[in-house]
Design brief:
- The chain is mainly β.
- It has one domain (about 25-155): Lipocalin.
- Helices cover about 15% and strands about 40% of the residues.
- It is built from two helices and ten strands; from the N terminus they run ααββββββββββ.
- An eight-stranded antiparallel barrel has the order 1-4-5-6-7-8-9-10. A two-stranded antiparallel ribbon has the order 2-3.
- A hairpin with a 4-residue loop joins β6 and β7 (about 105-110).
- The longest helix is centred in the N-terminal third of the chain and has 15 residues, at about 1-15.
- The radius of gyration is 19 Å and the shape is globular.
- This is Lipocalin family protein.
- Keywords: Signal.
Length: about 160
């Protein structure tokens, strides 16, 4: 009898503990609406960039993202991104995205026709220095056991 009560108590504890997820957090609608529109990455900077190559979003070298075009639609959290730089891989993809209440930008790069709920991998970056015409996304990467900030500078397209 004691074993049954102990097992029931343990199962109640296990099921009552809810894990916290990035995707479960409340959205920051103000930041999302401010990001809505067409943007271009004007710079990608990080300490040691002259020595270290960063493969951004598992797509291409971070330098290939300078000049890339991004379209963000805030009412359905969809969009598109495309690499446009000469001597870089040709890449274009639909995306889904949102900004949570912690200022975290959650991004999924999709294959054509793929539903976002089928994609389990994504990227979480920090939104920084947001203005009407520019904002930054900051990614944290591990370089030789040291966390390094990779900053993507976005400028509103005309």
């Amino acid at each position: 009898m004691k074993k049954i009560i102990l097992i029931m108590a343990m199962s109640v504890l296990l099921f009552s503990c809810k894990t916290s997820s990035i995707t479960d957090k409340k959205l920051d609608r103000t930041s999302q609406v401010a990001i809505k529109g067409n943007w271009t990455i004007t710079a990608v900077t990080y300490p040691g960039s002259e020595y270290i190559k960063v493969n951004s979003f598992d797509i291409a070298d971070s330098n290939c993202f300078v000049g890339s075009t991004w379209k963000f639609i805030s009412n359905n959290n969809k969009g598109e991104m495309a690499l446009t730089k000469y001597d870089c891989p040709v890449f274009s993809s639909p995306i889904t995205w949102f900004v949570n209440s912690n200022g975290e930008f959650v991004l999924k790069v999709l294959d054509a026709g793929e539903k976002a709920k089928k994609v389990r991998a994504g990227y979480v970056l920090q939104v920084a220095n947001q203005t009407e015409n520019s904002f930054q996304l900051v990614d944290k990467i591990n370089v030789g056991t040291k966390m390094t900030a990779v900053v993507y500078q976005f400028q509103k397209a005309n």
